[in-house]
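dumping this here before i forget
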Amino acid sequence: MEPNPTSLNPVRAERTARSVSGKSADAEPRDRYWLHALLFILTLVSTVIAGGQWVGRSALYVTGDPTSPWTLLLDRAFLLDGFRFGGSLLLFLTVHEFGHYFAARYHGIRTSLPFYIPTLTLGLGTLGAVIRIREPIPTTRKLFDIGVGGPIAGFVVALGLLLYALATLPDPSYIMDLDGHEELKNYVQQFGTYPRRSMDLTPPDGNSFTILVGQTPLYWMLTQLFDNVPPMDEMYHYPILFAGWMGLFFTALNLLPVGQLDGGHILFSLVGHKWHTRLARGFIVLLLVSGSIGFVEDFFPSLFAMSEVAGRLGWFILSGILYFYLSRVFKGNHRLIAPLLLGIISVTVWAQYDKALFSSFGYAGWFIWCLLIIYLIKVEHPPVLQPQTLTPGRKALAILSIVIFLLCFSFAPLRVI
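structure:
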């Protein structure tokens, strides 16, 4: 006699119960194609606008005929550079999400098409894209396949964008057509090339700022193969190059080995719940070290400018912030919290006396990311219904994804100076 399938699979049991109640469990919710298309178009528009602004183009130009009703028109260069950035970034996001989508479909897991998230309030024009998994993923191997599909697919696109952009870089005189950057222009006019490192990052006036993009191991290796590579604080003037770097950045963020991020799924599938929890907590501590160093670098000068007392209180403020995070990551276990808090403060103090060793390591933005991880993504990974060990091929793919993460990750990805 054939066994009752619902007794072997809780997910199938739930579907059967809904069928008995008169609702078709296998009737998959329909995708609202108009909504997905609308969000895609809006995101394309917002990223095109952001891309043109990043390059430094003016969105409008004067036709020269003041009597014409079309005196002001959209600048063609603005649109072209904007589309190079926006189109490239959306290509990366689309391939990443469809990597998840097709892996889920292959395993019979119900999922939605990608939802693109446009925004005009943040510099990139988008908050990314997501798909909605419409049922629990029952086995470890299916969880792994769906988790790894997106980052691997997206990484291939990001790598391709970077190689194309680096291979087609214009002559350094390209910077002459953009506004500002007078010191850099003088250097290019004198030597005919870009400086090997970023120039003085202190803006000449208090109303301007410089965006410094973080170096990653992969980007550094690729730039050694090409000429005319701009400094890291000028990359955003090259739309496809910047989009490719953002692809590396988003890939690294998704591969963070915590909670239910793609990297969390992969690590959980590879090492199990116990070691995933240990490694995820350890990585959060590492981010808190970086965040603490960045906090001292970015906020302490303002506190000392207010008064000496305010500056001294900065260390108490930092300690309070760290205690807040550690108490939640380690669930109030003060036998771990106390030494970790002391250790992070000690390393942060050390970093103030050894700037060379800790250069490009501090980034206060990790405090925000850790907040999102703790309350939305979670540090630990929930169990699956049917635990499995990964096949040798999947283990190799997991190791490859870890290598990709290390190649794409930067402790200080974006800094405003």
